[in-house]
Amino acid sequence: VPALRRYAWSLLRSPDDADDLVHDCLVRALDKLGTRHEDADIRAWLFTIMHNLFVSQYRRGKTRPAAESLDETHESAGSLRPSQEDGLHWRDLLRGLERLPEEQRSVVLLVSVEDLSYAETAAVLGVPIGTVMSRLARGREKLRQYTDAEPRPPLRRIK
Amino acid sequence: MSAPNGVAPADPVSEADLHAYIDGALDDARRAEVDRHLSEHASDAATVAAYAAQRDALRAALAERAAAPVPARLNPHVMRQQRNVHRMGWAAAAGIVLALGAGGTGGWVLRGQAPPQAANTISIMVQEAVANHVVYTADKRRPTELGAEQRDDLARWVSNRIQTPVEPPDLSDFGYHYIGGRLAATSHGPAGMFMYQNDKNVRMTVFVRPTHSTGDKAMELVGGAGQIDGCAWIEKGVGYTVVAPVPPEELRKLAQQVHRIVDHRA
Fold first, then answer.
1. Chain B environment of A158 (Cβ under 8 Å)
2. Residue B57 and residue A93: Cβ atoms within 8 Å?
3. In chain B, which stretches have pLDDT less than 50?
4. ipTM
5. B-chain residues within 8 Å CB-CB of A86?
6. Interchain contact, B61 vs A26, CB within 8 Å
7. Which of B85, B74, B89 is CA-nearest to residue B187?
8. DSSP labels for B169-207?
9. ∠ CA B52-B62-B76 to the nearest 5 degrees?
10. A34·B88 Cβ contact <8 A
11. What is the pTM for the complete model shown?
């Protein structure tokens, strides 16, 4: 559940919307428990349910997914209380994450943070593995540009 | 990713390989090849380092979210209880709880194949009752929807709505006078709320709502929000909660009186 919340939160940004999504996901999961294939990894299975719900409910504009409204960014980033100088970097990073197109954001999150394999991620999102790879590459690259572009103690700029 | 100057390995290292390298998705042989490639191509190595750092930073930045306590409504165990789904394999639901490392409420033990006990219903009832208590008793002028003079009307109305015959118990022998009541909202639907007041203007409420069971559950004192505790029990599937801003022992005594009166009436 913590992982589901983390993922939902990153997708939707509003903690309340995110928790609603997690809730719907768990309700669905409890309904479908009986039909689940025993061999499938339960985490990947739950992320799949969540992603499908997200697509069907939220992407159709019931709730605006994160990407556009930059104004709220400060609020949500500010709600984190990271320590010392990491804080600045993390905030930039999360803000960058929110600026990513949703399709790239999900891939980056599922792979980098939730530790799903490429094949699992592809299954969760219902896309070919090649698409996962290209979204991952584009997402990471953009995220790096975003964070590098932020005014902060310059790292070596490598091109 | 820029092509290496003139050096073309048999199987060139692609951008996808670099990401797979970061995510630990390469087999040992390929990993060794990429290692070799990186040692010869500083810019790719720097890219990999940057992405790996990005990955670590993301995990660190989001760790706090995963560490946040899980509210009861998102605890699969609690949810399952509320739904009272009997057809589902108990072990399977346990699987969800275990796989996700939830267990936010703690103290949950798998008891063989026993059906789930209403372990949390009591605390949910107290939460609901305390929330309503805090909102309505604080209201100086309109704490109730129907006052003491409309006692019977309220009893009929509430009984209808919660589909359980109830009436406000008479607690005047214990110094609490009935001042009215109302229909209250819970996540399980309507509940009846009866309000009392003693001569020191301390307000106490008795909260009644059906549960999804038909069983009994012994009285329990549960700490509510702030300083206010609630004392709750379930009798033949009907949940009662007594809430008052008084010390726990006193609250428990009050609850026992209410329990006795309700019991006697039934």
1. 43, 46-47, 50
2. yes
3. 1-9, 84-90, 101-119
4. 0.71
5. 57, 60
6. no
7. B74
8. ---GGGT-EEEEEEEEEETTEEEEEEEEE-TT--EEEEE
9. 125
10. yes
11. 0.48
